[in-house]
Design goal:
5 helices, mainly alpha
């Protein structure tokens, strides 16, 4: 179950990063975070291909890709209550460091299991 959560968080991170690249200034800290998540993604997929069926992994990845895209699109369009935005895209941008730490920690856990 943790594997599927990490896979979903991975796609969510990359969708947030794509929107962040279009709307915000690109800094070296963000670049380091992207590299850390890219390395973590390779570890997560290596674990997935060695422990799960390849076809199932690809299908789940495609579904998570679509779900993450729909979530970010919904946040970009806005969810309003009484004329005030419930969750803005800037609040989502603030979760990028937290997602980086969480994804990297899970990837290190998988790396420890593979060794």
């Amino acid at each position: 179950m943790l594997f599927y959560l990490s896979l979903f968080l991975l796609f969510l991170y990359f969708k947030i990063a794509r929107v962040h690249k279009k709307e915000e200034k690109f800094t070296k800290i963000i670049l380091v975070q992207h590299i850390a998540v890219a390395v973590s993604a390779s570890i997560i997929y290596l674990y997935g291909f060695t422990h799960f069926s390849s076809l199932a992994l690809l299908i789940v990845s495609f579904l998570f890709f679509i779900i993450a895209a729909l979530i970010i699109t919904t946040v970009q369009l806005g969810i309003f209550i009484d004329g005030k935005p419930l969750l803005g895209i800037n609040k989502v941008f603030k979760t990028i460091p937290l997602l980086t730490i969480l994804i990297s920690a899970i990837a290190v856990t998988y790396l420890g299991q593979m060794v």
